Amino acid sequence: MINTPVMIIGGGPVGLTLALCLSLQGIRSTIINDRLTTTTHPKLDVVNCRSMEIYRQLGLSEKIRAAGNPLDANQISAFAASASGPFFSVMSDRHFIYRPVADANKAIRASRDGAFPLESMQRIAQMHLEPVLLDEARRDPNIDVQMGWRLYGFDQDETGVTAMAHHVETGTVCQYRSDYLIGCDGPASRVRNFLNIDYDGTRDLLGELFIIHFRSDEIAALYPNGQPYWHTWISRPGFSGLLVSPDASRNDYVLHRPVVPKLNERLETIVAAALGTELKFEIIQSGPWRPQFLVAQSFGRDRVFLAGDATHQYMPTGGLGMNTGITEAHNLAWKIAAVLNGWGGARLMATYEDERLPIARRNRQHVRQCAAAAFEANFPKTDALLDQTPSGAAERALMGSTFEEKVSRLYESMGIEIGYRYDQSSIIAREQGPAPDYPEIDYIPSTWPGARLPSTYLANGAALFDLLSASGFTLVVNGNSPDTGEMEKLSTAATVRNVPLAVVHIGNPDLEPVYERQYLLVRPDQHVCWRGNSLPHDPGKLLDQVRGY
Length: 549
Hints:
Blueprint: E1 2-3, E2 6-9, H1 13-24, E3 29-33, E4 46-47, H2 49-57, H3 61-67, E5 77-80, E6 87-91, H4 101-110, E7 122-123, H5 126-138, E8 143-147, E9 149-156, E10 161-167, E11 173-178, E12 180-183, H6 190-194, E13 199-200, E14 209-215, E15 231-236, E16 239-244, E17 252-257, H7 267-275, E18 282-289, E19 293-296, E20 300-301, E21 304-306, E22 312-314, H8 321-340, H9 350-377, H10 390-407, H11 414-418, H12 464-467, E23 473-477, H13 484-496, E24 501-505, H14 512-515, E25 519-522, E26 528-532, H15 539-546
Helix pairs in contact: 1-5, 1-8, 8-9, 9-10
């Protein structure tokens, strides 16, 4: 039997990220994955800004950008009759999200109001993201990655979990003993099924859609500057679909269609129809898929937890599938580490579900609304769309404006990405009075307890997020010099409880309106858990609450 503190089932982006987050806090883990290699399908096409903030904390943001879309490449979404036109709408400069990474980063550095994320999003296909994460995990002495192993059962008791696995090729059997077991094993999660946890939601709401992954060196020339747009939504009488370019520097493309091919309909004909012109291309793989809007009824039991697609299945409208899983891993990792390192309380692990289940449901509702908006905007109202007549021009203009009005929520919802809040959690110190709104579309910076700390740069050029502790709490002191006596009381209370506590003094008057209070207590996952203009009279009581004791 092999002993490991944490057993992770599934070596996709969420499982690998969880292991890396644990290692950052000194916790060893073992990953088993039933695939022998990383995925060969593009799958996702964007790591959103919140996930990139987490990867920055892990020291991986630059490596991920190097493996993905060039920093000067466009992030444009467009609406057209085909990839070769005519184009009804091109969304390029109406929002921060459409800017190339290099331009977006300039806007981030220039911002002083906390309204931007620390990192802009990154276009990258999952087949290029996974090797970066896997390579980092394999080089990490705290992580043991075992590819080609499948879980076939586990038993848990009061002190740990015993898992049984076998090798997919040799049939060799192995047992693992761990303090915790985490199922990051996808939509068909064996861990979730073994726990007898079902999904909540209507299955197969939209039926089968179809996806074609193909390659071509000629498509880029259809677009300005030889750079394919990130998304080209295609709609004309008799044809609709979405052409995705996960990475402008490579020749991979993905075509999504709302219908499966008809009997004897050739895939080459479908691709050519989307392109609107005869170009050379090679089909790599294709197949039907069923978009879902599902969330698990529970995120685990006792010492076994779920994360990623094992907890939720979303249609990719809005890009919240893997990205929701990354924030789940980030939330779960610090709590496991706190317990294993001796300072997390008995109630801490239960707050994973308390905090993340409502966010999963909120994200599902957003994705559902995005899907409805896309379907509503993506169908011609009459057959006159392409006619060179006043009525044809009017319909093209109407479709373009409708597209921007409806589909923009898929891209411009910064509130859903970085504005979520854990304000009903038992380990968040609640405040009196009405809580500020946190809408899905616009991001409103706030330090209301439970919110992600707004990101800013200090007077010396340092990013505040880079100064926060990833393995303990950080007291951010904003404005006047702190009360030395009260600070000593807090420090002593933390030392007695073995709670890691760092202190960061901002000392920048311009940032006082952003951070709202003189003192902010920030968790390892960069969320505010308490704030005040004076330190609490009983700091031990506060620390006991926020660590789940």
